[in-house]
Design brief:
disordered N terminus; two-stranded parallel ribbon; about 400 residues; about 75% helix
Length: about 400
């Protein structure tokens, strides 16, 4: 069993300095990985139009992508906890590269499913080890490290619809091949990170892992806290699925926008979502992650409830506010979970990434069916109540103490 060292008490000399070069490199790799992922919902209007897809089929495409992006992550994390694989992220990017090529030529529903599953598999390999590398390079500032890592992914997600609007929409589906450039750059960056990670594994002291402010909670309290976090993720990512998968359809339907116009409005929301991520981790380091999680989910509720009733201008304003507030939660959630289970960083990272993607998958599938039977605007009325579930965060144990970083 690994030895846990409490950095806050007396062994600060064991803690590494924050390795910003690695943190920003892994963040940029995350940007490229999630940029590739963002292609999928960004081309939905094109695919729906070209192949006469229903909203249920759009939901199933997202379900297939998110399922493959989620189901493997805990297993990848569990395995790499025991057997670290510095070069595994490169294999993940190769899967994503294959998915880009495949979806560029996909001309039917089942081929599209196969393509998004390749990209999803690449994502499931990328995230657990990336979260571990961010933790190793954090120097104890894990909230900051997770925010730097997460913001790269969120900016990638924001750039996806913008680049699709500029490159793919004016031309044709085959222009998705241009995103091979992103995958190639990603392979180069991940190769450099892999060598750093390999050297770190060689040089570190065996059987010793350094953690700051390890909280000694009973097993029952840890299980209760994990259960609450998973409920919060359900609320957050089910609601986020309505935004990431169907927002372009929503503004097109309600405000009579073109595909290209809708993509720019999607970019506004996703950029705000990326900006909000920067706040969540460092804020959690300072005031306590419980309060950041609570406010970032439950705090979005009044704005989400207003969203279905406003015009286009105020829709953009509310989406910026919602994006900034709700995006600050996940870095805090992930670090909070890592502090609850510090010996199982890969597994807990994979579990929470996987569950988050899984809720996004389930939400997309169910909401697509609901949209077919009702309307896309009705979906947004229903989903506006989901952030209210965040009030359950009140019952999370408070891990913040006077020695916290």
């Amino acid at each position: 069993m690994d030895t846990i060292v409490n950095v806050s008490s007396k062994n600060k000399d064991l803690a590494q300095k924050t390795v910003y070069s690695i943190l920003f490199s892994i963040s940029f790799a995350h940007l490229l990985n999630d940029l590739i992922q963002a292609i999928i919902p960004s081309v939905y209007p094109i695919l729906k139009q070209n192949y006469n897809l229903s909203f249920s089929q759009i939901g199933l495409i997202t379900f297939a992508f998110q399922l493959t992006a989620s189901i493997f992550q805990p297993f990848v994390g569990y395995y790499t906890d025991k057997h670290p694989k510095p070069f595994s992220q490169i294999y993940g990017m190769l899967f994503s590269l294959a998915g880009i090529i495949s979806i560029s030529f996909a001309d039917n529903f089942y081929w599209i499913l196969l393509s998004v599953m390749l990209i999803g598999t690449g994502s499931s390999i990328f995230h657990p080890e990336s979260a571990r590398i961010s933790n190793l390079a954090s120097g104890g500032r894990r909230g900051l490290a997770q925010s730097i890592f997460q913001v790269g992914g969120n900016f990638g997600t924001a750039l996806g619809p913008l680049l699709v609007a500029l490159i793919v929409v004016p031309n044709s589906q085959v222009y998705i091949l241009w995103f091979i450039i992103a995958a190639t750059i990603g392979l180069g960056i991940l190769s450099k990170i892999a060598f750093w990670y390999r050297d770190h594994l060689i040089n570190r002291q065996p059987k010793k892992v350094v953690f700051a402010d390890f909280q000694r909670l009973s097993k029952s309290k840890v299980k209760w806290a994990i259960a609450i976090l998973l409920i919060v993720i359900f609320s957050k990512f089910f609601y986020s699925a309505s935004l990431s998968t169907y927002y372009t359809f929503y503004v097109m339907d309600k405000f009579n926008l073109s595909i290209k116009e809708a993509q720019f409005h999607m970019f506004i929301y996703l950029f705000a979502y990326a900006a909000g991520t920067i706040m969540g981790g460092p804020l959690g380091d300072k005031i306590g992650r419980k309060y950041v999680i609570w406010l970032s989910v439950f705090g979005a509720a009044p704005f989400a409830l207003l969203l279905p009733y406003v015009n286009l201008f105020w829709t953009d304003v509310l989406m910026i506010i919602i994006g900034i507030i709700i995006s600050s939660a996940f870095p805090a959630i992930l670090v909070y979970a890592q502090e609850l289970l510090p010996r199982k960083l890969g597994m807990v990272s994979g579990l929470f990434y996987g569950f988050a993607f899984g809720m996004g998958a389930l939400g997309s599938a169910l909401l697509g069916t609901l949209a077919d039977y009702t309307s896309i605007q009705y979906v947004y009325h229903v989903c506006s109540f989901l952030p209210l579930i965040g009030i359950i965060c009140y019952y999370l144990p408070n891990l913040k103490n006077k020695n916290a970083q």
